[in-house]
Design goal:
By secondary structure, the protein is mostly helical. It is 69% helix and 0% strand. The protein has two domains: 1-78, no CATH class; 79-165, Arc Repressor Mutant, subunit A. Helix 1 (4-33) runs antiparallel to helix 5, helix 2 crosses helix 3 and helix 5 packs across helix 7 (139-164).
């Protein structure tokens, strides 16, 4: 038999887990959209979609909710590759100095397509093929965008280090 305090602790733990998961999903949405209003819109749409299909996704609710966030962000932003032939031809933009103190600024300053590839493939750990399917582009586009996003991240880190010295 469950003791009353045990039941209250379970509810508190479940609530804390729910809040933590919602914060994580909002952060995913924000990193993809780079806009608080769009991130909120995206998250609400994704949760609504998952709530409607709750019988289907009960085994993997976290996976399906995160996937729904990604899909809704893609629909909202419609990121597309620039189709450059060579990574070396694309210039690395200098990051804005105002962004030095903004959390996640190096990710938020990426072009939309590069940001999506970075978040989906590196932060979310999806394969190049899965990323290409979600973004409706070639694996080559994904690979090039990932290289560019990592180069831009390195460039931002170096410049931030120079500012601190």
């Amino acid at each position: 038999m469950l003791e009353p305090m045990h039941f209250v602790n379970e509810i508190g733990t479940s609530y804390a887990n729910l809040i933590e998961e919602m914060q994580s999903q909002y952060l995913l949405s924000f990193l993809l959209t780079a806009d608080h209003d769009k991130a909120e819109q995206c998250l609400v749409s994704a949760i609504g979609e998952c709530r409607e299909g709750i019988g289907v996704s009960m085994d993997w609710p976290r996976f399906w909710t995160r996937r729904a966030v990604i899909k809704h962000a893609i629909q909202l932003i419609m990121p597309a590759p620039e189709h450059a032939d060579d990574v070396s031809r694309i210039s690395l933009k200098e990051p804005a100095r105002w962004a030095d103190n903004i959390p996640f600024a190096p990710v938020l300053l990426l072009d939309a397509f590069e940001r999506f590839v970075f978040v989906i493939s590196i932060l979310e750990g999806q394969s190049d093929e899965e990323c290409a399917i979600l973004l409706r582009c070639s694996r080559r586009d994904v690979m090039m965008a990932r290289v560019l996003s990592l180069q831009r991240q390195s460039s931002t880190d170096v410049q931030a280090g120079e500012v601190l010295q």
